[in-house]
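Q: Hi! First time doing this. I have a protein sequence and I read that you can turn it into a structure. Is that right? Here it is:
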Amino acid sequence: MIQVRKTAVVTGGAAGIGLEIVRHLAAEGMAVLAADRDGDACARATDSLAAYKDHVRVIVADIGTPDGARAAVDGAVAAFGRLDLLCNNAAAHPFEMVEGHSLDSWRETFRVNVDGTMLCSQAALPHMRDQGGGSIVNIGSISGVLSYAGGAAYAASKAAVAMFTKTLALEAGPDGIRVNCICPGTIRHRSPRGDEDKPTHIPLGRAGTAADVAYLVSFLASDAAGYMTGAVITLDGGATAGRARVSKRRAP
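A: Yes, that's right. Below is the predicted 3D structure, encoded as structure tokens:
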């Protein structure tokens, strides 16, 4: 058994935002188990995380099922001895208009995004309670606050994740378990090309990066956020702050 300062489970941890969260936490010295249902992505992630192989595990697991959720959480506890952070990041993201929405894809979105968040939390709570506390960070979306045409299933599921966060914070707080939700806006998974325009709807003038999300996950898991629970935090560069009435900053 590896003895390290803190340990984490990151779902959907083999690619995109999840992989960056795993890499960031591992670089900070945390032991991390990344769970993902995509076996090929897990193989690539294992290779890309080779520098942290002594304290990172990558497993194939479908966290939208009770067995998959338990495999992720119990696997981390078996490998590392405890569980300090559960980051519920795994998500399905279909694009379908309501009138013709497939019931299968609707249910699959909720199975992964909502059921998975609930099932992993259920699996983690006893471990965190027994050790005297822990942190659960759910990855929501600004789509759960401000939707878009074609995004009904995703937006509705992320709104559910935000409300689930608040409810679980109320229930788990007395056991020292903090539960918070990050709602990212536009996140770019690659470096922008020189010919790409700056997004005009984002006051900070750039899309977010997976690293922006990872830094906030790390903060919420730390003692510095010890009095934060039940928070739903927008991380969107100001995109949902309101409407800008001028197209550029006024001259002094």
